[in-house]
Structure formats: structure tokens, C-alpha cells
Design a protein that fits this description.
heterodimer; A: 317 residues; alpha/beta; 7-stranded mixed sheet; 4-stranded antiparallel sheet; 12 helices; B: alpha/beta; 8-stranded mixed sheet; 11 helices; globular
Chain lengths: 317, 335
């Protein structure tokens, strides 16, 4: 059984549908990517799994089974116990995720106290060990500092230290390197890879960067307008991208390993040009291969191990 | 480096020449009596030149001074030392009123298109404003020019009555570009023109910048942190670190044969959308963070993070030398 099984997850804010039936799985020790552009529902998916969406305003349905237990129907107090110990999250912006008026040390020991019952010197020792683990030099001194005294990369390391403090079995990272410079991004990705390998933590990586996915993920799910449009192992996805949106994304990226000055092939229009999945393929208005078949009702997810949601794919291939 | 760049011959057609420009910001302490206790050397002696109709890409990480340099070129930031020359005019020597008028020749495209467009002005007002400021044309002429420019950036003329909040991010960046184009400038400084946009939209805007360059004969100074974006847009690329250029070459050369350790590390850090390339790649992981530009390391500024650093790097500042034809680097070694 998979560690996390998400089935038909739907999230709506009032009349606006953000996530429109998302399915995917994360196995023990696996790195799974959720890829898409702004507004595709990737962050809302992760917040729904963590139970962090506002109770009022957000309507969540579907299932998110962690170890067989549906997280979406779990009472609040149970969810609170699991958050931090069973599953933990790293956010994009480390400065606004840390409390600016509380010392780094206290923010780490807080988690250790709550979930592992460590107190006093034992907690401080463990916090120091954690900072050391995520590669922060001189950890004892850093424990007494405030978030503003650290650089962006260091802050992200602190967040990761807090997230792994209780050895969670699933770590959700929502654009953990987007706010960072490339050289710092490389450090953080290396650290995440290292943690996954050493501790066997499963990682759900949410990102817009296909480069990050290629280097880190075992499985990839491409999201468009609140639904998975393609799902495969990373080697398969990059070798044989099938859905026109995935193909379009790959063609839009300027690459360092390809000939210079070739014009890019962007996807036309914007995510505002959309139709409802119930009426057809949401990507149809921007797709170059669009036919009448594309707007005749909901496109199903097709495939055996490499899934895609395009009714035209077989004919083109 | 000094004036000799101007006489090198390669700069005969140079539209923009930046010579040893420095921008230092004072650090002040004290409440009643302010004392200057030091300087942040945001830009600390940069020279470069851009040929007419070409694109120069300036790349580096946050805090390296690339944005400050771009602003200093337009004198939105007053350079502490050095000269900037556009065409035959020394921009750094212009008095305020002349400078104001001269700005019609050099415009800027900003990173955040929403933050740089007045939310209470509709598109027509936004586009006509630069013309009004410079006293160009009558109201109808301004409107005609606005229509023409909108078409050039790929927006329908029907948007003239609309307001910035009604547009998507990509469309807003098109508006920002249209606005910079209104005065038909010679030089456009693009500061992170696509970094706020989604990848599919990034490609649209990058292609647009390319097309406009051909159509209007523009010269670009593109400032960006994304190496792939810079490589795609630029003819020549300069890599900045802590206020100084560390390497400069044609964009093909610099990406194929980087000579400075920092350039090598930067290039090796960019993730590529191909699992095979990713798995086989040798990555140079730099340790630590950028040092403070208020107190840069002695000798070579990069030595504190350089995997190849030797004793000499702490003692002597490396010369800005031509390692191969048209390929400049500031490193003691030939790597």
C-alpha cells in the first residue's frame, strides 16, 4: 500500500474550483513531483492534505489516505498530532514562515517538546544537532539568533530542520527553492536529496521548475487547471512527454544544453483561457492540436504506467 | 581598467559605454549627528560596452549589484565615480534638466509589471504619459502612437480603456514594454523582465523582446539571475559578483568555456529539464553565502567560496584580463 493515496481530491473556494479531481500516490521513500504553473492547484492540493485550508470558505472533498487513514475526515486534534510528526511541510518563503520575534532555538525546541517530549538541555542539544544536520555552521550560536539575522538559504535550512525534527514519514515541500539564488538552490536540493536517501523519508515536491523535477523526482504529476494531465516516472515523462501541455512547457524553457538563439516555442494564450473539465479538455483553448473531439466531454486519464489526459495523443503518436 | 577600452576598436559602434562605474551607499549611524561609518560597495568599478542593436546580459545572484548598475546607467542612482556614455553624450555629466530630456533615449522595463504601472491610470493614460512628459505630439498623435505600440507588443487596441488590474501577468509585462517603447528609445534596460512570469508566458515575452529589437533597432541591457534566460536573449554576457564583473564573453563562449570558478559554479547549479543530464552532471556546490558588500574579502572577492582558492587569492586582487580574444576574466589562474 502506498504511504499517501490521494483520490479525487476537490477543493472549491465559494464558486471557484481550485482543485478539480486530483489523484496521485506517494510510496515510502519516494520523491514525487507535482508540477504546474501558478493557479494550477498544486499548492492548494498540499494545503488540503496537511489540513491547513481555512474551515470556512474552502470546501474539500475526496480522500487523502495516509497509511490507510483518511486525513480529510480526521478530527482536528488528531490531525494536529500528526502534523509535524507523521507529515511535515516546508514552505516557499522562509521569512514569513518563521516567527520574527522568537529565537531560532525556541522555534525548533517547540516542535521537539510538543511531539517528542524533550525539554531543557536535551531539547537544546537535539536542536543543535538538527541545525548541524541541515548544514548550518556554528549551530549553538545560531540557536540564540532571530530569523532576520540569517540569510535566505539559512532560513530555508532552519525550516527544513524544523520539518524533519520528528523524522516525519512524508515531507511536503512547496516551492522550497523558488525564493533562493541558484547556487543556494543547489545546496538546498542537495540537502533534501540527502535527507530522503538517509532517512527514507517520502518527499512530495511541489514546483513549477521542470529542471528541479528532473534532478530530484522519481515520479512526476503534471497539473493543469486543477487536474493531473500527465503522470509518469521522471525518465519516461522527459523522454516521451505526451500531453500537449507538458510538451508545451518543455518547449517554452530556454535551456543551457541546447543550441543558442533558437526561438522558443511558447504556449499561446494564458491560463485565463480555460473551459470546464466537464465540457472537455481545459487546455483545449491553448492547444495547437485541438480538434472537435477535445471539447466533447471530460477527457479520461489514459494509459498503463504512463498516464495522460489527451484524447488526441494516440492518433498523433 | 581605464579608458583604454574605448580605444580598443571593438567599441567603434558602441552605443553604451560604462567606464569604471562605482556606486557606494553610505552607512550612517547616530540620531542627532549622523556619521558615515562605512560604505556598501554595491557596484565597485564596472566597465562594459554594448554595440548598437545588440543585447548585453548582466547576470549574478541577489545582492551582486546588477540592478544598481542598471539604475546607475540611467542615472536613477547617482554613480559615485566613473562615466556612462550613450551615443555621443556623457550621461554622467548631464545637468538635471538636460538629463530629464535625455531620458527619452533610454528607458527601463521593470520586473514587477503590476508595481510599475499606476493602478488608477488606464492604458491610454499610461502609454501617453511618457510622451506628455517629453512634450511629444498632440492628443490624437499620442493616441495613434499608443495604438501602434500596442500592436507591436501583441495587445489589441481595444485595451486602451482598460486598467492594469484587468490584465494577466504576461499582458502587464507587455504593457510595461509598450510604455518603455513609446518614446522610441535607443537603449532599454530590462531588469528581470521575465522572472515574475510563468514559464509558458516567459517564452512569449522573450520572443517579443527579440522581435521588437529587430523591428525598432533597440539595444538592450538585460539584467537577470536566470542564466538560461540571459543566454537566450544576449549576444554578450557579463557575470557579476559582489559589485564587480568576474567574467565577460560572447554568450556562446561563456556557456561553453566558462573560465571563472564562479561562472562554472553558477552554470553547474542550474537544473536542466532532463533526468539523464541531471544524473550525469558534475555539480560544483558552493559553500556558504555571499559576503557583505560593505566589507568585501581581501584580494579576490570570490575566494571565500571558491573551491580552488590559493594563498595568492587572499593577497592580490586578480587583474581584469583578456584570457582569449574577446573573453575577459578576473582570476589569477587559467582554469
Amino acid at each position: 500500500m502506498a504511504l499517501l493515496e490521494v483520490e479525487d481530491l476537490r477543493v472549491a473556494f465559494g464558486g471557484t474550483t481550485a482543485v478539480d479531481g486530483v489523484d496521485f500516490q506517494v510510496d515510502q521513500g519516494q520523491v514525487v513531483g507535482l508540477v504546474g504553473e501558478s493557479g494550477c492547484g498544486k499548492s492548494v492540493t498540499s494545503l488540503a492534505i496537511m489540513g491547513l485550508l481555512p474551515r470556512r470558505g474552502a470546501t474539500v472533498s475526496g480522500r487523502a489516505r495516509f497509511d490507510g487513514v483518511d486525513l480529510l475526515t480526521l478530527p482536528r486534534s488528531d490531525m494536529r498530532r500528526r502534523r509535524g510528526s507523521d507529515l511535515a511541510m516546508v514552505f516557499q518563503d522562509p521569512l514569513s514562515s518563521l516567527n520574527p520575534v522568537v529565537k531560532i532555538g525556541t522555534q525548533i525546541t517547540e516542535v521537539l517538546e510538543r511531539h517528542r517530549g524533550l525539554r531543557g538541555e536535551a531539547a537544546t542539544k537535539e536542536a543543535e544537532h538538527l541545525l548541524d544536520r541541515v548544514g548550518i555552521p556554528d549551530p549553538r550560536r545560531r540557536l540564540g539568533e532571530y530569523p532576520h539575522q540569517l540569510s535566505g538559504g539559512m532560513r530555508q535550512r532552519v525550516l527544513i530542520a524544523i520539518a524533519v525534527a520528528c523524522a516525519p514519514r512524508l515531507l511536503i515541500a512547496d516551492e522550497p527553492t523558488t525564493a533562493l539564488d541558484v547556487t543556494i538552490q543547489a545546496q538546498i536540493l542537495e540537502l533534501l536529496k540527502d535527507l530522503v536517501d538517509a532517512e527514507g523519508t517520502a518527499l512530495l515536491m511541489i514546483t513549477h521548475d521542470l529542471g528541479v523535477v528532473a534532478g530530484l523526482c522519481d515520479e512526476v504529476n503534471v497539473l493543469y487547471s486543477g487536474r493531473v494531465v500527465e503522470s509518469a516516472t521522471a525518465p519516461d515523462l522527459f523522454a516521451l512527454p505526451t500531453h500537449p501541455y507538458t510538451v508545451g512547457l518543455l518547449n517554452s524553457i530556454p535551456r543551457l544544453d541546447l543550441p543558442i538563439h533558437e526561438p522558443l516555442k511558447p504556449i499561446r494564450g494564458s491560463i485565463a483561457d480555460v473551459i470546464r473539465w466537464q465540457d472537455g479538455c481545459a487546455f483545449a483553448p491553448r492547444c495547437d492540436r485541438v480538434t472537435e473531439k477535445c471539447v466533447e466531454g471530460e477527457p479520461p486519464l489514459i494509459g498503463a504506467s504512463h498516464f495522460h489526459r489527451c484524447v488526441m495523443a494516440e492518433e498523433v503518436a | 581598467m581605464s579608458v583604454d577600452t574605448v580605444t580598443e576598436g571593438e567599441t567603434e559602434t558602441a552605443l553604451l559605454t560604462v567606464d569604471d562605474v562605482k556606486v557606494h551607499f553610505p552607512i550612517r549611524r547616530g540620531i542627532v549627528v549622523e556619521r558615515t561609518v562605512g560604505h556598501v560597495r554595491a557596484v565597485d568599478g564596472v566597465s562594459l560596452s554594448i554595440d548598437a542593436g545588440k543585447t548585453y546580459g548582466l547576470v549574478g545572484e541577489s545582492g551582486c549589484g546588477k540592478t544598481t548598475l542598471g539604475r546607475a546607467v540611467l542615472r536613477l542612482e547617482e554613480p559615485t565615480a566613473g562615466t556612462v556614455t550613450l551615443g555621443d553624450t556623457e550621461v554622467t555629466g548631464l545637468r538635471p534638466e538636460r538629463l530629464r530630456r535625455f531620458r527619452s533615449k533610454m528607458q527601463m522595463v521593470f520586473q514587477d509589471p503590476l508595481g510599475s504601472l499606476n493602478p488608477r491610470h488606464n492604458v491610454e493614460m499610461l502609454l501617453a504619459e511618457p510622451l506628455k512628459v517629453h512634450g511629444v505630439g498632440s492628443k490624437t498623435e499620442r493616441r495613434d502612437l499608443a495604438r501602434e505600440t500596442l500592436e507591436a507588443v501583441g495587445l489589441p487596441v481595444s485595451v486602451l480603456e482598460r486598467y492594469p488590474h484587468e490584465f494577466s501577468g504576461g499582458q502587464r509585462q507587455r504593457l510595461g514594454i509598450a510604455r518603455a517603447l513609446m518614446l522610441r528609445p535607443d537603449l532599454i534596460v530590462c531588469d528581470e523582465p521575465v522572472s515574475a512570469l510563468d514559464v509558458s508566458i516567459q517564452a512569449q515575452v522573450m520572443n517579443l523582446l527579440d522581435e521588437l529589437q529587430d523591428e525598432f533597432g533597440l539595444t538592450y541591457l538585460v539584467i537577470a539571475h536566470d542564466l538560461a534566460v540571459v543566454r537566450h536573449l544576449s549576444d554578450r554576457v557579463g557575470v557579476m559578483y559582489l559589485g564587480k564583473l568576474v567574467e565577460e564573453a560572447d554568450s556562446e563562449t561563456i556557456y561553453e568555456h566558462p573560465r571563472h570558478p564562479y561562472t562554472k559554479a553558477l552554470l553547474s547549479a542550474v537544473p536542466q529539464p532532463d533526468p539523464e543530464v541531471e544524473a550525469s552532471r558534475e555539480r560544483i556546490i558552493l559553500t556558504g553565502d555571499l559576503p557583505s558588500p560593505a566589507n568585501p574579502p581581501s584580494g579576490c572577492r570570490f575566494r571565500t567560496r571558491c573551491p580552488w582558492a590559493q594563498d595568492v587569492c587572499a593577497e592580490k586582487e586578480p587583474e581584469w584580463r583578456e584570457a582569449a580574444s574577446g573573453h575577459k576574466v578576473a582570476c589569477h589562474f587559467d582554469l
